[in-house]
Amino acid sequence: MRKSFKLDEIDCANCAQKLEDAIKKLDGVNDARVNFLTQKLTLTADDADFEGVLNRVIDLTAQIEPDCEIIR
């Protein structure tokens, strides 16, 4: 399953790349793209565990970029 989410308060392209790289390393993530210009996250993961993967992504985002929020 692939879904896109709005990112609120991602500060710079460097931060977006750092976040993308970290998300791609999470278990269950098949692919991830963070676009600084559009302020969007596109996440690809298996359908069966998508919600669990998304929750891990949200937790990781809060650690790396505390001001950034993923809008569901």
Describe this structure in words.
This protein has about 70 residues and is an alpha+beta fold. The protein has a single domain, classed as Alpha-Beta Plaits. About 40% of the residues lie in helices and about 30% in strands. The chain contains 2 helices and 4 strands; from the N terminus they run E-H-E-E-H-E. A 4-stranded antiparallel beta sheet has the order 2-3-1-4. Strand 2 and strand 3 form a beta hairpin. Helix 1 (about 15-25) packs across helix 2.
Question: What characteristics describe this protein?
Answer:
globular, four-stranded antiparallel β-sheet, Alpha-Beta Plaits, 2 helices, 72 residues, alpha+beta
Taking all residues together, what is the mean pLDDT?
Answer: 97
CATH class: Alpha Beta
Rg over alpha carbons: 11 Å
Give the tally of structural domains: 1
- Topology-level CATH name: Alpha-Beta Plaits
For the largest beta-sheet, the strand count, sense and barrel status come to:
4 strands, antiparallel
Number of strands: 4
Low-confidence stretches: none
Tally of helical segments: 2
Alpha-carbon distance between the termini?
15 Å
- Under the CATH scheme, the architecture is 2-Layer Sandwich
